[in-house]
## 1
Amino acid sequence: MRVRQAFYDQARFCDQLGSPFTALLCRVLADGLDGSSQIERDILEWPGDPSAFADSVPLRVAGALHDLVRAGRAGELAPLYPPHPMPNAAALLAAARGLLAQHSGFVREFLQFPPQTNEVGRSAALIAGWLEIASRTGLPLSLFEIGSSAGLNLIADRYAYRFGDVPWAPAEDSLPGSGQSFAGLTLRCGWKGRGPALDATLRVQSRRGCDRHPLHLADPAQRERLMAYVWADQPERLERLGAAIRAMLADPVSVETSDAADWIEAVVCPRAEPGVARVVFHSIVWSYLGRPAQERIAEHLARIGGASSAERPLAWLRLELAGKDEPAALRLTMWPGGAEELLARAHPHGAWIRWQDEGGGE
Ligand SMILES: C[S@@+](CC[C@H](N)C(=O)[O-])C[C@H]1O[C@@H](n2cnc3c(N)ncnc32)[C@H](O)[C@@H]1O
């Protein structure tokens, strides 16, 4: 019952986030899995919490099926998947159940992994925040990201953007190699409100990230898994993820394996280089950490921030879901000072950004 409900809930989220195909897939699986094969029983009798706020079983199943489709191993299911037209529900259910049974060993192993998304679209909001910090401090940035996944938002300054009608492109000398490899990725997002500080000079002096389960993009299987978790009817997201992966492979940044609170306490330390702004940032990570870790991170940053100065400032930038059915919120706390500001509201995949007024009001 809990698993069926998780599929129905996921279907609703997919509808809201523009994936009618995945919504249909989740609904037919919710209605039609009956436990007549061992793999269906494994899914329906999932031992933990199957919901989107815990194990996200529907996303695991959708990811496994999409992986098989992408690998050309999906037989009768393949012609029912995008870019083909929306399929008949009964045909989709029959083909999906057949494939789950046929590849039960692969699916069982795939289901063990927590779904990993590294949504490059969030780079638009994050880089707007970096530009704001660069503009206010006039300093190069030293970046520290928690919950980096594969680290694709850690290299947000290698992508080009279109904020509404306004373009932003990385400085040639900030790109590894010729810079040509990045030409393919321009992130477009709708923009409302005061513009971001696009004329600020953005210099990234260093970048580090951590994740409890980082994805290593040099491994083709992990790359494919990351692609498979993107919903099959969202070709733009697939395209930009592929382009971002290529940008990362051209000059890799390795993501450290660590728990976020342990890592922050270890790497954000009282001694800091003068003339550099340290920026701790994260996107769609906070709710996974749990209250004790959240408090440890907030207390540590307040302590280090309390000892900061104009030559050694500290910024805490986060793009996190504000509440059920609300857009994400981009918040910034800067020390010295330590006041928290709401910089913007944003679509959780970066489709639009609504920058707040000067006073931080809604
Ligand atoms: C929803 S994903 C977001 C990934 C990335 N920040 C983005 O916006 O695309 C959440 C990430 O947080 C990581 N995570 C969850 N709990 C963590 C913890 N305690 N310490 C470090 N990373 C954690 C997960 O492994 C996952 O990669």
Note: The chain has two domains: 2-111, 120-355.
## 2
Amino acid sequence: MTINVIGGGLAGSEAAWQLAERGLPVTLWEMRPEKTTAAHESNHLAELVCSNSLGSYLHSSAGGLLKSELKQFNSLIVQCAEATKVPAGGALAVDRHRFAAMVSETLAKHPLVSIRRQECTEIPAEGVVIIATGPLSSEAMAGRLQQLTGESHLHFFDAAAPIVDGESVDYDKGFWAARYGKGTPDYFNCPMTKEEYECFYQALTQAQVAPLHEGVEDVKVFEGCMPIEEMAKRGLDTLRYGPLRPVGLRDAADQRPYAVLQLRKENYKGTLLNLVGFQTRLTWPEQRRVFRLIPALHQAEFQRYGVMHRNTFINSPRVLNAAFQFRRYPRIFAAGQLTGVEGYVESTASGLMAALQAARYVQGRPFLQFPETTLMGALASHVATPNKDYQPMAANFGLLPPLAERIRDKQKRKEAYSQRALEDLTKTHNLQEN
Ligand SMILES: Cc1cc2nc3c(=O)[nH]c(=O)nc-3n(C[C@H](O)[C@H](O)[C@H](O)COP(=O)(O)OP(=O)(O)OC[C@H]3O[C@@H](n4cnc5c(N)ncnc54)[C@H](O)[C@@H]3O)c2cc1C
């Protein structure tokens, strides 16, 4: 029986390809051009809605590792990206039109893939289904997902603050403390002098903002979680009475700083740090430029940029298992950004994993176990691990268990993470395929 994959974005296209390559017939539903989203502009499958970069391609980066992992499974998205790449230093950036056209043509030519250009408004009543309708899922499908998950609300506006790699913070330019000394000193405080603050303020208020792609009413929803650059425009000192307030904080010289950004641990290990109160709509390059003006962040590496756009995602830990399968409805799987992974390649990875697991479900074989040392395994675990404040997550080394031996050199440590992941994935893959 044909497997229905709903949504021909990055996750859905990869899922359809993986299933078809395993000899399973697929119907891939894509509502464009009949109906479009606020961000898509073309009729192609796998359209990149914003940046043309699929992130780092370096072996020693999390983005590079995830791509290497996907290549072990003959990923269509990675193959097409490599075939249409444009020069971009260490990143895998593509000619977006050629890339999406190549994905579309490859799937259209596959004898086992049938592309249905129509909005899917009901979850097919029979057979295996993979829902991959993305962060801008149509209203009808969002409604079906609400019924499926029992959640009354699935539309979120990401007003997320950026997250930086803990190892890229300059700890000599700040101090650990809790405000008023209350509780344990779990915040890393990044102080600014008057001059530093004013320079930051100027850059922030003049920086380029990303388009919202949503109506005016939607902006109102966000009065309660205002972007930092909007707040700054209310006056030079507004931030010093808001997210950058220095009250209750004393530096090593027992002085109260002029302004302070607090960094909060994003994960238990403290390898990821959140810029508290810095939800933003600045474009990603501008976030990098402006937030690096804060002395402790002058070399910060961003693991997740601040975003503000509609982002429909399900509370996956409540409803999915690590095979991206609905626990209550075993014939239905979910994939892509909808499941709470964040980014083009992460969405592709979840589409790939959901398809491999769905194929095994159809064939009556046990699910694949992706090693926890791999980014694919870590993302699968992210969607299935209970979390009372579930938020979308991009691939990063902070998700992986520590290495058996501590390696001081950062570059070598990252390479060791990558090497371990690829070795473990190869071993497990070979083992499970036999
Ligand atoms: C405005 C915006 C900017 C972003 N910028 C970036 C960025 O620069 N870099 C990055 O890595 N990530 C970015 N993201 C995140 C990005 O959306 C995801 O990384 C990725 O596109 C998600 O892949 P997906 O397959 O889950 O969803 P999508 O790629 O969005 O694919 C979902 C597909 O489903 C279709 N669809 C929806 N509902 C239905 C239905 N009922 N029936 C049939 N088809 C349907 C849609 O038309 C779409 O083609 C951005 C997201 C948004 C919303």
Note: Residues 6-12, 29-32, 37, 39-40, 49-51, 119-120, 132-138, 140-141, 213, 309, 336-338, 343-344, 347 surround flavin-adenine dinucleotide (CB under 6 Å).
